[in-house]
Automatic annotation (TrEMBL):
Classification of source organism: Bacteria, Pseudomonadati, Pseudomonadota, Gammaproteobacteria, Lysobacterales
Coiled-coil stretches: none
Cross-referenced InterPro entries: NucS_C, tRNA_endonuc-like_dom_sf
One of the record's GO molecular function terms: endonuclease activity
Name of protein: DUF91 domain-containing protein
Superkingdom to which the source organism belongs: Bacteria
Location of the Endonuclease NucS C-terminal domain: 179-270
Species per Swiss-Prot/TrEMBL record: Pseudomarimonas arenosa
Length: 305
């Protein structure tokens, strides 16, 4: 008689990069996922529990098996990497916190470790770059709640395909603190946005206040002398953002003092990932709005006398 081998499970484990910066980089380097609930604070694997969130995590840990698939998830529909579990170090007796104990965390944090082997053939190799899941592949509201959640195994290949697509890759934190910082940078270095762009020569302003009191983030002109209106967004673009830029463009083009020839270009610089929602991309293309994805990169060089 042939033994029946169960299909591997698939788990989403949330990485709290907001509470603990550097957490994902540690997970990546050490090939682990980790959860909290210290036994010293009463969160034990045996016995009753009145904490609903811990009960859910405890049940999930009890169901995990070696060979199961696992994905590290983060806020804003992002994931780090896929891997397979090869050992569970989650027992109360082996609590080993990633975040060391301190006054407000007397037991440390994230000490229940799930040891994994990351699939290095899928997704960005650089741990500072993660994957923004397209809308069709994102976890459902039920799947995204809680620290650990079982995911249907059928979703694995869809997530794998999204992770292979470099258009979904984006820096984990690389962003300007404010959109004004991004527009300031573009105003100072317009040629970084497009070779040949310069500040507008006829209107001696960086930002231009429109008749509806809206404010253009940056006003440039290209090599042909055509005015270029730039709108900056930290997040992935939406049709609302495109409409805002179209309103500015129409108001600008209607003013013969600003735009005597009636020609004007519009560029929406956005964050998120280089892949945008198809409906937004088509809407922008149909209305002549150029979409440009921005990344913040910082280089460090040893200094000396």
């Amino acid at each position: 008689m042939t033994d029946v081998v169960d299909a591997p499970g698939f788990w989403r484990v949330h990485c709290h990069i907001g509470h603990h910066p550097g957490q994902w980089q540690f997970w990546y380097r050490e090939q682990i996922c980790a959860v909290g609930y210290p036994p010293g604070a009463g969160y034990t694997l045996q016995g009753s529990s009145k904490d609903q969130s811990w009960s859910g995590v405890r049940n999930a840990l009890a169901r995990m098996r070696e060979g199961d698939w696992i994905v590290a998830s983060m806020p804003e529909h992002r994931v780090g990497r896929l891997g397979r579990i090869f050992r569970l170090a989650v027992d109360d007796a082996v609590w080993d916190p990633i975040v060391p104990p301190r006054k407000d965390l007397p037991h440390g944090e994230n000490g229940r470790r799930i040891l994994v082997r990351w699939d290095l053939g899928v997704g960005p190799i650089d741990p500072s770059v993660v994957v923004t899941l397209p809308k069709a592949v994102r976890f459902s509201p039920g799947e995204v709640r809680a620290t650990i959640r079982a995911i249907p195994i059928g979703k694995l290949e869809h997530i794998r395909a999204a992770m292979r697509d470099e258009r979904n890759w984006a820096p984990i934190i690389g962003a300007f603190a404010m959109e004004t910082a991004l527009s300031d940078y573009i105003a100072l270095h317009p040629d970084q946005l497009e070779p040949g762009l310069i500040s507008h020569t006829g209107l001696n302003v960086r930002e231009l206040v429109m008749p509806d009191r809206g404010r253009i983030d940056a006003l440039l002109q290209d090599r042909a002398g055509t005015p270029v209106i730039v709108e900056c967004k930290q997040h992935a673009p939406s049709t609302v953002d495109v409409d805002q830029l179209l309103r500015y463009r129409n108001l600008f083009a209607a003013n013969t003092d600003w735009c005597p020839e009636g020609r004007v270009r519009s560029i929406l610089v956005h964050g998120g990932a280089s892949r945008v929602a198809p409906t937004v991309a088509e809407y922008a293309r149909r209305n002549g709005v150029e979409l440009v994805f921005h990344q913040l990169r910082v280089n460090f060089i040893s200094s000396g006398a």
